[in-house]
Structures are given as structure tokens and as C-alpha cells.
What we know:
Helix content is 5%, strand content 45%. The chain is mainly beta and 118 residues long. The protein has a single domain (7-116), classed as Nucleoplasmin core domain (Jelly Rolls, Sandwich). The relative contact order is 0.38.
Amino acid sequence: MSAGDYTRSFASYGGQPIDVDLPTVSPLVTAKSATRIITVIKISFMPSTYEASTVSFLDSISGKSIGSMTIPATAPSGSNTFVLDWGPVGTKLTAGANLLIAGNATGRLHIEAVQKGR
């Protein structure tokens, strides 16, 4: 498996990508039970409108941010996709926690996450 290609490990844990248009309501990913642990692998955001803002992704139980994206007021030269990538191990939320979003942005959000537990 090449660096940055998590397709096989992601699929083996039953992960399904989630695509949503922002703005949207939280939670972005909901734990299926109080013992389930959501592991976020990668979040990508492609703005459709540029306005200076920050978008943060939060653990609903601990309240801790797992990452933020700062969106500029004008489109950057080069790639217009903002990415948070935790690699094949991902970053785990607290057991039973949902993935929340805070901040304002308009565009397409792509989330790769898996849930483990009962």
C-alpha cells in the first residue's frame, strides 16, 4: 500500500466515506452506540465560496478539537482543497462521541471515518 493510499485498510474496517455540503448541522458522524469509537482518517474540504473563516472538528464528549481548517477570503493559487489527514491509524474520538463541526464555510466536505466496538 503506497503512502497516502488507505483504501484497503479503510475498506477492511467497514469504513464508508461521507460527503456533505456545508453549511450543515452537526453531528457529521454519529456513534452507533455509547461504546462505539469513531476513528477519523481524513477530512477534505473544497470551498464553493471563499470568505475568511475557520472550521473546526470536535469530539462531542470531550469538547476537544481534533483539527481546524482556516479558509482564506480569496481562493489560493494551486489546490483549492483543504485536507486534515491522520494517516492509516487515524485519530480516535472518545467512546460514544460524535464528530461535530464548528464554524462557517460553504462547500463540499468529505470525511473518511470508521467505527469500532459494540
